[in-house]
Specification:
Layout (H helix, E strand, L loop, with lengths): L29 H11 L5 H12 L2 E7 L2 E6 L7 E6 L8 H8 L1 H8 L6 H8 L12 E2 L5 E2 L3 E4 L9 H16 L2 H6 L4 H9 L51 H6 L11 H20 L12
Antiparallel strand pairs: 1-2, 2-3, 3-6, 4-5
Helix pairs in contact: 1-6, 2-6, 3-5, 3-8
Length: 300
């Protein structure tokens, strides 16, 4: 029995937000695995595969988050984009989750360093809110559509809910959550920046560096740069040949940092910068060896 394949009728000129890490997302962090697992538990069938292609192709042209509300525009087969609205159930602002995180500096510090302790899920559960979307529906509409704990709305003509446009937005949110788990708490009504401001007594609306006056400190006036002689160090010019080498990986730091969230380029940001680093690193080595270099070769 042959299978029919239905090609995606999507605009090839879309310049929206492109997913970069969907294939390896489940291998990054435990909360990323749980997020993708929650989507797969919705029994989406072919819609999940189509939504992945939508997310990778940049069909999500805009995505805005304000607390537990998410609104996005997704380009489909029609000229006008569809509007996707998501509303996550939020924990009370003075609930156990907010009070506990604010009162435990180590827990707050881990969230600020893009780490998500498992204790947070238990705290939200005590506030009557699930950290991750529930894969099983909590009810049905009069028309027979499943209802989940996240309110999902899309003005597309697709009867199924969640449709592929909603799933594409959820996949992009999953990429952002994988690298910044505080976003997951924001969707549940717990803003980490507000908790930091409440714990330190600062105003989260103010930006910029604020001078701190510590009693007993003396300002240091450095009129210029002073060479520092560290024991055991030698000038680069005195190093033997072969000490300075070019790493085999042109961009190891980029891989460590991970993909850029909400990237809109046609090529992955890591791949584009890796090419530039590959051209520049031989010139950097020549400059370190005090050789004359031609910067025009880096643009070829």
């Amino acid at each position: 029995m042959s299978r029919k394949r239905y090609p995606l009728r999507i605009t090839r000129t879309a310049h929206g937000i492109r997913a970069q890490d969907l294939r390896t997302l489940v291998r990054t962090t435990w909360w990323a695995r749980r997020w993708i697992g929650a989507l797969e538990a919705m029994r989406l069938g072919p819609r999940l595969g189509r939504a992945r292609q939508y997310a990778i192709a940049g069909q999500v042209t805009s995505l805005e988050m304000e607390g537990s509300h998410v609104e996005a525009c997704v380009t489909g087969s029609r000229p006008d984009p569809y509007t996707v609205k998501l509303d996550f159930s939020a924990a009370p602002p003075d609930g156990k989750t907010a009070r506990t995180i604010q009162g435990e500096p180590m827990l707050l510090a881990r969230l600020l360093t893009d780490d998500l302790p498992t204790d947070v899920e238990d705290l939200l559960r005590q506030d009557g809110v699930a950290l991750f979307p529930k894969g099983e529906p909590i009810g049905t509409t009069p028309e027979g559509r499943p209802v989940y704990d996240v309110k999902m709305n899309c003005n597309c003509p697709d009867w199924a809910r969640p449709c592929k446009h909603i799933i594409a937005v959820l996949l992009l949110l999953g990429e952002e959550i994988a690298h910044h788990p505080a976003t997951l708490l924001s969707l549940r009504g717990v803003d980490v920046e507000d908790l930091v401001a409440a714990a330190t007594g600062t105003d989260p609306e103010k930006t910029g560096n604020v001078p701190i006056d510590l009693p007993g400190t003396v300002p240091i006036d450095l009129p210029g740069t002073v060479p520092i002689d560290l024991p055991g160090t030698v000038p680069i010019s005195t190093l033997d040949d072969g000490i300075l080498t070019v790493a085999s990986d042109p961009a190891p730091l980029l891989k460590r940092l991970g993909p850029v969230p909400y990237w809109r380029g046609g090529v992955r940001c890591q791949d584009a910068l890796a090419k530039i680093y590959g051209r520049v690193r031989p010139l950097a080595l020549e400059a370190a060896e005090a050789k004359s270099i031609d910067l025009r070769t880096a643009s070829r």
